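Worked problem 6 (solution included).
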Amino acid sequence: MKIALIGAGPRNLMAFERLVYWALDRKWTTNVKILMFDPFGIGGRVWNPNQNHELKMNSLASKITLFTDDSIQMKGNPHYGPTLFEWATTLGKDFIENNDFKRQKLLIDEVENLTKYSYSSRALFGIYQQWFFKHVEKRMPDNFTVEVHQELVHNVRIDKDQYVLITDEAAFRADKISAALGEGMDEPNDEEINIENFASEHDLKYVPIRYPAEVDIDDIAPSDHVIIRGLGLSFIDYLSELTERRGGMFQRDDRGILTYTRSGDEPTIYASSRRGLPYHARGLDQKNVGETYPRYFLSDEYVNHLVLKNESITGKEFINRITLDVELTYYVTLAKLTYPNIDIATFEAELAEASNGFKKILDKYNINTKDRIDWEQWANPIPGNITDTASFTTFIKTYLQQDIDVANEGNKVSPFTSAIEKLRELRSNIRKIVTYELLNDDDYVRYVLKQFNSLNSFLAVGPPAFRIEQILALIKAGVLTLTGPGMVVENEDDHFVTYSSVLSDKTRYSGNVLIEGRLPQPNAETTRNPLIKNLLENGMARVYSLHLSDGSIVKTGALDVTTETAELVTPDGKIMPYFFLWGLSTEKRHWLTNGAPIPGVNDIRLRMADMIASKMLECE
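Solution. The predicted structure is:
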């Protein structure tokens, strides 16, 4: 049997491990040849071990793993192994020293100073993946072989009962395929083409939507004025590249406040977005591995019942249950912190029974009005009296410091931080609702794609708190200006200009560099990925579409896959047998498909790896 793994990032490395341990546990004797394809080698594109060291992960090293454990609900047996943190602080140094990595000294210094509260560099996670591959490879049974081809698979065809994978170098036959294609790039839209042409005509620099680690911005001079559109995680990456990597120093003063000392090599930076605020800082994680808050409303039992009975849920009820779970965690944490006379167990039990809202219970326990959740304020924290540049500049410094302070209180102490942590912990059940299509298409578009996704990103997909500290330090140092909500970017004469459409004075900021500080949205219809384009053209795949009650069709940009097995679905609704596709290429068919596996929480990525491996070897 020949098995092809297209993509050598975390997902297919986990699939590789599951294949090996399924075979070991069941003593299979059939010969299995595994072909792994990735032009970037083991670890793939995002986790390249030789990328700039300033680029960090967005999850604690102690809560990242590639190994299964007892929490995983799967058919196979778990194979235990170290988390990224455990590996780095025990085996990491020797592995780094015995291999040729570009920034070896920085990597060794990192593992020597890593703590369970550290966010590792992306490069270090890439090295962990390389170690993981070799760890699994050494344990392969004698009837297994593996080949790694640093080539791009740009087409797959069917020949008789096999798939034929085509690269620039050769064609490879395989019986079964797991494709996890990771970050992609889209063709430029009309606006981007116009900006590119304008930049070319006026000797300006334009950086379109790209993965930041692969963008060369070393030619940006200290005299340049840089506009960054977007305040998400790509903005953070570009900010690091333009400041810290250029020799600027972040240091704490006597009061513990982070300050920035210029190197002299930084450009002037202006940045904003529609909301005008960076994503909220991630709170200090005070929980042990596998520790979670109880889920009462969008509970495991409730969601599993819906799945088992194939029962639908309205979008309104879906959002209501998420809201109630988040609010319950907030109010219980609040009571522990500031209402010492409340019996917490009784209070929590009453809240857990109140499916119609908490107002009567909050009134009963005399919860102060100022302590109660205002979802509108959470979604739009800029007060109505912030109307001009001067008031926004004062506000943003206070706002960022408050965000830092609240995050540093921790996710078991701060009511807000604990509530946002609960939002993350609901992800597995939100994913099930989406994957099993338990919302009708109208509600999925209205409540998830148009409302919840944006709010969830703002509240619960943000950077570590130290990144928000860095943003504030750069503002105080005069390197960075956040220009206000409702960001507008225009071409003007021989330069770019940006301003806030909301602030009354419309202060304009000119730049000769424009960077799109956003990651590309996975979209099969506009992607540059030749494999996805050819799968659609060959009739082996289709775009997942939503059929609304008004007769319109919304094409999500995701490739369609089966619900239970994640196998490709063709335009006529047939299944491509044993052609599994998972990860970012299915975003919107699935939900929130990025991120690294988490130990101790029945992680969906580890479950899918085991499911795919078991299906691939089920005939044995």
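Discussion: The mean pLDDT is 97.
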